[in-house]
Amino acid sequence: xxxxxxxxxxxxxxxxxxxxxxxxxxxxxxxxxxxxxxxxxxxxxxxxxxxxxxxxxxxxxxxxxxxxxxxxxxxxxxxxxxxxxxxxxxxxxxxxxxxxxxxxxxxxxxxxxxxxxxxxxxxxxxxxxxxxxxxxxxxxxxxxxxxxxxxxxxxxxxxxxxxxxxxxxxxxxxxxxxxxxxxxxxxxxxxxxxxxxxxxxxxxxxxxxxxxxxxxxxxxxxxxxxxxxxxxxxxxxxxxxxxxxxxxxxxxxxxxxxxxxxxxxxxxxxxxxxxxxxxxxxxxxx
Length: 286
Hints:
It contains one helix and 15 strands, in the order ββββββββββββββαβ. By secondary structure, it is mainly β. The strands form four sheets. A seven-stranded antiparallel beta sheet has the order 9-14-10-11-12-13-15, with no helix packed on it. A four-stranded antiparallel beta sheet has the order 7-6-5-8, with no helix packed on it. A two-stranded antiparallel sheet has the order 1-2. The longest helix is centred in the C-terminal third of the chain and has 6 residues, at 209-214. The radius of gyration is 22 Å and the shape is globular. The model has no long low-confidence stretch (mean pLDDT 92).
């Protein structure tokens, strides 16, 4: 981690990631053929109404097209560079397949420039290789996990995260997710062996409000500071208790501090073997 001199109160305690020690790209811009423009929504939907609060502003960003489908099978690929992606917390890698095609992938922590990997049902469970969950032994760490075959990577894509293969149960594989939830996924779904790069992401201290605004984060107002019409915790004279047994969101739903927010009729409840442990017991790394 990079620490700053306390030249101001904003700098005091501020930390960052030493990108120069991690990123290897010699070019200042990403590969143009794998980028596209993207407008910031500011947290608003197609009707212009705010649906995601505390978002807006920020610097302009170029979107990198990252491959989560991994439909090039049985073709070895070599990592050419490790690059920064402003749209995700983990680093991305520019890879060159043996047939000459280049793609961006979510980089695993352990691989570096010049290393190779392959997407194959017959691949060995080495770091960076991608293969079906049913062919992995218990104790293997994986990320970029599919929830259904050929559906693309959906689970465990944040910086420094990984899931663990717990057991093989018939056609299903039991996976312990970073939230500590144990879930069974069909064994024909694919996953990448390893851990997502940039494990120091969770240790970054933003330090000052201006840095948060550059990241596209707007100020957040406490519910108790609002009027009763604007939030379930609002209203009252002076400082008032929130008036509910459970903490609520602006929409009136329970949230935070280990309270269950999952719908009891969620279609995927049948795949949960063990519910996540709330609060301090949750951990992203074992």
